[in-house]
From TrEMBL:
It comes from Malus domestica (Apple). Residues 237-426 form the COBRA C-terminal domain. Coiled coil: none annotated. It comes from the Eukaryota. The lineage of its organism: Eukaryota, Viridiplantae, Streptophyta, Embryophyta, Tracheophyta. Keywords: Glycoprotein, GPI-anchor, Lipoprotein, Membrane, Signal. This is COBRA-like protein.
Amino acid sequence: MEFENQANQTHNIRLTCCSWSWMKFTFLAVLYCLVLSPASAYDPLDPTGNITIKWDVMSWTPDGYVAAVTMNNFQMYRQISNPGWTLTWSWAKKEVIWTMVGAQTTEQGDCSKFKAAIPHCCKKTPTVVDLLPGVPYNQQFTNCCKGGVLASWGQDPLAAVSGFQVSVGQAGTSNKTVKLPKNFTLLGPGPGYTCGPAKVVPSTVFLTTDRRRKTQALMTWNVTCTYSQFLASKHPSCCVSFSSFYNETIVPCPSCACGCHNKNNCLKSDSVLAHKTGINTPKKDNSPLLQCTHHMCPIRVHWHVKQNYKDYWRVKMSVTNFNYRMNYTEWTLVAQHPNLNNVTQVFSFDYKPLIPYQSVNDTGMFYGMKFYNDLLMEAGPLGNIQSEVLMRKDQNTFTFKQGWAFPRRVYFNGDECMLPPPDAYPSLPNSGHVNSNSILQKAASVLLIMFSICFSL
C-alpha cells in the first residue's frame, strides 16, 4: 500500500512537471508569435517591400576602393519624406573615407594622424546624408541631391532611387582582402527600419549609354532594410472616421487614437498662436505640433458611403492634416476593401491597384495628381484633400449590412491608421422605424391604382 502511494506521488510530480513544461512552451510560442506578428514586423499588403542598399566596387585604389552606393526603395506605398534618410555603418577595420560625391558625412572625426592629405571622414561609424538640390555639378552623382527624399516604388519608381560615390582608404585592395562594413542603420527620417548584414552578391552588370557594351562591378554587396511600424512609434500616426447616407450617425476616430502624450503641446484651431509666423518651422526631431482634437492624430481619413445606384455605389474619401509643422508631399493613401477589385472611376486622385496575392485584388493605392493635390498642406483651411470612388457592384457579395461598406485597413504614407471599433460602425435602420412619409407615398400610390382600375371598369 505504501509503495502504491509513493508511485502515485511520483506520477503526480511527473504530470506537474510535464504540465509546467507545456505551459512554458505555450508561453514561449505565444510570445514568439507576438514578436513576429504582422502588425509589428511584417506588412501583409506589401510582403516584399524593403529598402535595398547596394555597394558596387568600381575600381581599386592603392589603399582601398571606389564604390558606387545605390539605395532603392522597393516599398510600394511607403516613402522617405523630408528631412530625408540618414545612413550609418561601422567599418570592419580602420577604414577612412577619402572623398564622397553626391553625399556627405555629418562629422569629419579625428584625422590628426594624416599629414599630406586630410580624409573626408575618419570616424569608425560615419553618418551619411544626401546633399540638397542645387549643389555644383562637380559634386553631383547619379540619383543624388534630393535632400534624402525617396518616393515610394508604386508611385514613382524613377524617384525611388538615391545614390552617391565613396572612396574608401585603409581597406582591402581585392575582393579577397576587403572587409564588408557592418551594423548598418537607416533612419527614414525617424526610426522604424532594421537592416540586415551586408551580403556579397553577384556583381552588378552595367550597360553603356549606347547600349552596345556591358561592364561589370569588381565586387557587389547588398544590405536589406525592412520597416516596422511598431519600432517607429508605439502609437499610430493616423485614424479613420466613418459616415453613410443611410445613417445620421458620424462615427469619429477613437479617443486618443494616436496617444494623448501631446495633449499639452497642441494648439486650438482658433488660437492666436496658430497664426504666428514661424509656427510651421519643423523641429530637428520632426515632432508634430498638433491641433487639439479628441483623437490627437496628425492625419484623419474620413470614409463616407455617399450614394447607392442599381449597379454602382459611390464613396467619398477626405484626408485632413492636423499638423501645423508638416506639409505632406507626394502622400499615399492605401485602402483594403473587397469591392476595390471593381473600381470604375476615381475622381481627383490617381489610383493604382495593389495585388499582394495573385488570387486577391482587394487593395488600392490612392495618391495626388502631380502639381494639383500631391501636396497636403499643414493644418488650416487648406489642409484637406478629397476624392470620390465609383465602384461596380457584385450582386453576389454586395451589402450594406454589418459594416461591409467600410474598409478593412487604411494606410497613410505607409503607416496603418486606427479604425473605429466594429460595433460602432453605421448600421442600416431597422425595418420597424420606416419613414412615415414613405408609407404615405406608398399608400397614395396604391389608392391611385385602385381608383384607376375602378374608373376603367
